[in-house]
Amino acid sequence: MTKTNKNSEKVVVTDLHKYFDNNEVLTGIDATIYEGEVVCVIGPSGSGKSTFLRCLNKLEDLTSGKIVIDGFDITDKKTDINKVRENIGMVFQQFNLFPNMTVKKNIMMAPVELKKMTPLDADKKAMELLNRVGLAEKAAAYPGELSGGQQQRVAIARALAMNPDIMLFDEPTSALDPEMVGEVLDVMKELAAEGMTMVVVTHEMGFAREVADRVLFMADGIIMEQGAPEELFGNPQNERTKDFLGKVL
Amino acid sequence: MDFSRVFTEAMPLLLQGLSLTIVVSVVSIAIGMVLGLFICLMKMSKNVVLRAISGVYIWIIRGTPMLVQALIVFFGIPQLIQMAAPGFHMNALTAGIITLSLNAGAYLAEIYRGGIMAVPEGQSEAARSLGLSKSQTMVKVVLPQAFKFSVPSLVNQFIITIKDTSILTVIGMAEIVNKAQQYVGSTFVYFETYSVVALMYLAIISLLMLLSNFIEKRLKYEGKK
User: Fold this and answer.
1) Dmax (CA) of chain A
2) Using one digit for the tens of pLDDT, what is the confidence trace for A200-238?
3) Count of domains in chain B?
4) What does each C-alpha distance from B76 to B10, B68, B87, B104, B169 come to in angstroms?
5) Tell me, what DSSP letter sits at residue B2?
6) Residue A207: which of A196, A195, A192, A197 has the closest Cα?
7) What residues of B are in contact with residue A109 (Cβ under 8 Å)?
């Protein structure tokens, strides 16, 4: 797998803390993600993986700490978070497609609304992306008419329509029937191969092992251990990592 | 039974009343829908003052009978204004529309709010993650879906508003009941006249229900080509 410009920092997280009421969900996270890197975040449920991911585009407000994305400090109140989000695509566990819009409209809406593209260009882009995820014939369908796997592929296309340079995936295959997991992972693999910077919260250990450049193991709101997949899966050092991998592998 | 007499003698009068009832209902519902949307957004805003204003408004309207509201708007408020501007006069039609609009606005605000809250959080999150601002998310993603959820309750409120126009006879607004009262006052054909009035209401409301079924079908996303 060829990666470009491995040294440029895309995301820098410093001492991130997050409370929900009195419950400290993230207890001090430091992480750096480099351009073109695919980082998979694994760990037991309740470990804070999704919260960590959602802090990266500020869908969750953090309690303290600092997150810098492409040089923009998103924890600074003066930063226009909407502008930063245009460059961060997000894919959700529950797809969250807009049920009142056709598949094509779902993909076109944001670029047109945010004046990134003319409707004509957005239409072209949408068809190009639908071709890419293998769903061009579903352009006029409504999300409710698609299978889960198809919906999630549309959701990926929708996120890509804004030409983001980072993609966040929040357990993208957890809500899918087993036979549909593969089609979504294939799209993600292609994206990774093209050099997209990706942060993927996942329970798919096979995907993490095969595609990730680096795997973060989270537990109790911190990153307990991290490393290249062959190290982390082959020779885990931390007791918690060993325990978790023993249960899931 | 003397229906033929009602049809020949009273019909022109009743039809006049009916057309006013329809006009007043349509105008009040239109104003109420816009007003209700603002009140709803105020009630859901982070600003304490806006929330308080909308809360008090809804509280007063829901907590008092429309009959009393109509009396205050038609007789009470003009009296207050006359202290500053002698000679001020409000006609029954204006007072009626104000009362009905204020009333519909309060109930519609709560209906919209219910619709907005029924839209899953993930919908706004998806829109925000694409870079849409809060207001763009509201307009493009949340409100269209909220509207769909609200249709049955909206239609219900429209029906209530149409029927409530009859209350405005107390301030002398010349809607259908008012016209009927004029007619029976001199002829005493109560049963026939009021039966025809009831049938007229039934007819408009049946039409509205047909329309709402049509709209609900149109708003189904799947299989719409």
Assistant:
1) 55
2) 999 999 999 999 999 999 999 999 999 999 999 999 999
3) 1
4) 33, 10, 14, 20, 17
5) -
6) A192
7) 130, 140
Does any CB of chain A come closer than 8 Å to the CB of residue B216? Answer: no
* Confidence check: pLDDT of B222 > 90: no
Residue from the list B120, B123, B221 with its beta carbon closest to the beta carbon of A144? B221
In a mutagenesis test of the A interface, which of B119, B129, B224 is the best target, namely the one with the most A β-carbons within 10 Å?
A: B129
Domain range enclosing B87? 3-224
CATH number of the domain residue B11 falls in: 1.10.3720.10
Task: Let me know if A178 is exposed, middle or buried by CB neighbors in 10 A (0-12, 13-18, 19+).
Answer: exposed
Q: Coil, strand or helix: which one is A243?
A: helix
Residue A201: the pLDDT is: 97
- Is A52:A217 a contact under the CB 8 Å cutoff? no
pTM, rounded to two decimals:
0.85
Q: What is the DSSP string of A115-135?
A: TSS-HHHHHHHHHHHHHHTT-
Q: What stretches in chain A show pLDDT beneath 50?
A: 1-5
Q: Are A100 and B222 within 8 A, CB to CB?
A: no
Helix, strand, coil % in chain A, rounded to nearest 5:
40, 25, 35
For CA atoms A47, A53, A55, A60, give the dihedral sign. negative
Which position has the token pair 């997280």?
A: A13
Backbone angles phi, psi at A64, to 5 degrees: -155, 165
Mean pLDDT of all residues belonging to chain B: 92
